[in-house]
Design a protein that fits this description.
20 helices; two-stranded antiparallel ribbon; mainly alpha; four-stranded mixed sheet
Length: 462
C-alpha cells in the first residue's frame, strides 16, 4: 500500500515539479561554467556542492509548498479524525519528495559529467563522498520545508523559506569569512568550525580534496537534521515536537567539536595521487600532474620549444619542464609553507588555462612567454613580487627570445619604453658578458635571491 501511495505522490504531487526546478536550475548553472570543472572529477563534485546555495532554497520552498497541501484543500480536520497515525500518512509524501530531489541532483551530476569523461584521466575516489554529502542536505531541506509548510500553511511561506535558505547557506558563511578591517591592512581570520555545517563549498584547488572525516561529519549532521525534519512533519503534540529537535541537537553536538577551523581551506587536504607527475619522454622530458594529464599533448610542443630557446642562450640550461605541484595560495590554510624546490635542470610552469571542454587553451600566445619566464622563477614559498623584480623578469624573458619586450596589457607607454631601454642596454653588452650575467641571474633565482635579477635593470629602474 505504501509503495502504491509513493508512486501516486511521485506522479501527482509537487515533488515532481520541485525536482524539475532543481534539475533545470542546477544543469543551467553547471553548463554555463564548464571551464571550472571540465576534465576534473573532483572539481565537478565541488561545483555540485556549490550549487547547493541555490538548490537547497528550492528544496525548502518545494517542501513548504507540499506541506501546506492538506490545509489548502481543507482536509486537516478530516485526516486528524482518523485513527491512522500521522506518521503513516506523511512518510509516502516525504519519501516522494526525497526521491525526487535526490534524483534531480544525481541527474545534474550525470549531465555535467559529459564535460569530464572525454578529457579526464583520473577519478579520485573521494569524488563520490564529496558529492554524496549533498544528498542528505537536500533531503533535510525538503523535509524541513514540509514541516514549515504544515506549521504555517500560507502562500508566502515557500518564497520566504527560499530567501531565508539562501541567506543561511550563501550569505552567512561569507560574512563569517569576511576579513577583519581596521587601521591596518585587512587581516583574514580563520573561519569558525561552524561554517562547515553549511554543505555548500567553494574554492578548492585542482590538487585538493575534502578530508573524508570532514565529509562524514557533515553527512552525520545533515542526516540528523533530516531526521528532525521528518519527526517535525509527523509530530502532533508539543512533547513530540520537542523530541523531534533532539536528533539535530545531538548531530551538531557530535560533529561541531570534530570539524576543523578555517572553513573549506581547513577541511581541504592535498590529494597525493593528483599531484603525481605524468611525463612525455619522447624528447626533453615534459610532465604535468595526474589531475591535468589530459593537458599533456597540448603542453609538450610549447614546453620543448621553450627548452630549446633556453639551451641556445643559457649555460647549463634546464632540460626538463614540469607543471607546478603546489596548491594555489588562495586555497591554502597556511600560505607561508615553503614548497619543495626542483633541481636546477628543471623549470616549473603554471597550469595553462583550461577551456570549456577540459582542454588546454593556448590561444593568445601567452603560454610560451610564461614558460620562458619560468626560467627566472623558483618555488620559494609565498613571496611578494616587487615591481622591479617583475620588470626584470620581462627583460630577462625578452633576452631569451632575442626580441624587445612585447607590450603588456595595461602598461603605460613610458613603462614599456623603460623596459625596452633596459633590454637594449643588456643586449648591447658583448655576448660572452650577456651569458655570464644571465647565468648569474639564473643561479640567484635558484637560490631564491632576486638581487642578481634586479641588477640587469639600469640603476634608475631597480
Amino acid at each position: 500500500m505504501t509503495g502504491r501511495i509513493l508512486r501516486i505522490e511521485l506522479r501527482r504531487s509537487a515533488a515532481l515539479g520541485t525536482a524539475l526546478l532543481i534539475l533545470v536550475a542546477g544543469a543551467a548553472l553547471l553548463l554555463s561554467s564548464t571551464q571550472f570543472f571540465a576534465g576534473r572529477w573532483m572539481q565537478l563534485a565541488v561545483m555540485a556542492r556549490s550549487l547547493l546555495m541555490v538548490l537547497l532554497p528550492l528544496a525548502l520552498a518545494g517542501g513548504a509548498w507540499m506541506g501546506r497541501r492538506d490545509a489548502r484543500h481543507r482536509v486537516d480536520e478530516l485526516f486528524a479524525s482518523t485513527v491512522r497515525p500521522r506518521w503513516q500518512r506523511v512518510i509516502p509524501t516525504a519519501g516522494a519528495l526525497a526521491v525526487s530531489v535526490v534524483t534531480a541532483y544525481l541527474l545534474v551530476f550525470l549531465i555535467a559529467a559529459g564535460w569530464v569523461v572525454p578529457t579526464s584521466n583520473y577519478f579520485p575516489s573521494a569524488t563520490v563522498v564529496v558529492f554524496a554529502v549533498g544528498v542528505p542536505a537536500l533531503i533535510a531541506a525538503g523535509w524541513l520545508g514540509m514541516a514549515a509548510g504544515r506549521a504555517v500553511p500560507r502562500v508566502i511561506t515557500a518564497p520566504v523559506l527560499a530567501v531565508v535558505g539562501f541567506v543561511l547557506v550563501g550569505l552567512v558563511p561569507e560574512l563569517a569569512m569576511a576579513p577583519d578591517t581596521g587601521a591596518e591592512i585587512a587581516q583574514f581570520r580563520p573561519e569558525p568550525a561552524a561554517v562547515l555545517l553549511v554543505p555548500a563549498i567553494t574554492g578548492l584547488d585542482d590538487f585538493q580534496t575534502i578530508a573524508t572525516k570532514v565529509s562524514l561529519l557533515q553527512a552525520l549532521w545533515l542526516g540528523s537534521l533530516a531526521v528532525t525534519g521528518l519527526l517535525l512533519l509527523g509530530a502532533v503534540r508539543r512533547r513530540a515536537i520537542a523530541f523531534a529537535v533532539l536528533p539535530a541537537v545531538l548531530g551538531v553536538a557530535v560533529a561541531l567539536p570534530l570539524l576543523p577551523v578555517g572553513g573549506v581551506r581547513g577541511a581541504a587536504v592535498v590529494d597525493p595521487v593528483a599531484i603525481e607527475l605524468v611525463c612525455d619522454n619522447d624528447g626533453p622530458q615534459v610532465c604535468v600532474t595526474r589531475a591535468h594529464a589530459g593537458l599533456l599533448p597540448a603542453v609538450v610542443g610549447p614546453a620543448r620549444q621553450a627548452l630549446d630557446m633556453m639551451a641556445a642562450k643559457l649555460p647549463d640550461a634546464p632540460v626538463r619542464a614540469v607543471e607546478t605541484q603546489q596548491v594555489a595560495y588562495w586555497a591554502r590554510l597556511d600560505p607561508d609553507t615553503a614548497p619543495a624546490r626542483h633541481s636546477a635542470d628543471t623549470i616549473v610552469f603554471d597550469t595553462p588555462t583550461i577551456d570549456r571542454l577540459g582542454r588546454a587553451d593556448l590561444s593568445g600566445d601567452y603560454f610560451l612567454p610564461s614558460l620562458l619566464e619560468a626560467a627566472w622563477q623558483q618555488e620559494c614559498g609565498e613571496q611578494s613580487v616587487r615591481g622591479d623584480v617583475y620588470r626584470a623578469r620581462i627583460v630577462a624573458t625578452a633576452w631569451l627570445t632575442g626580441r624587445p619586450p612585447a607590450p603588456q596589457t595595461g602598461w603605460a607607454p613610458e613603462e614599456m619604453a623603460l623596459l625596452k631601454s633596459a633590454y637594449q642596454a643588456l643586449v648591447s653588452l658583448p655576448e660572452v658578458e650577456q651569458r655570464r650575467r644571465m647565468a648569474a641571474v639564473r643561479e640567484g633565482v635558484l637560490a631564491c635571491r632576486d638581487d642578481e635579477l634586479v641588477a640587469i635593470l639600469p640603476g634608475d629602474q631597480s
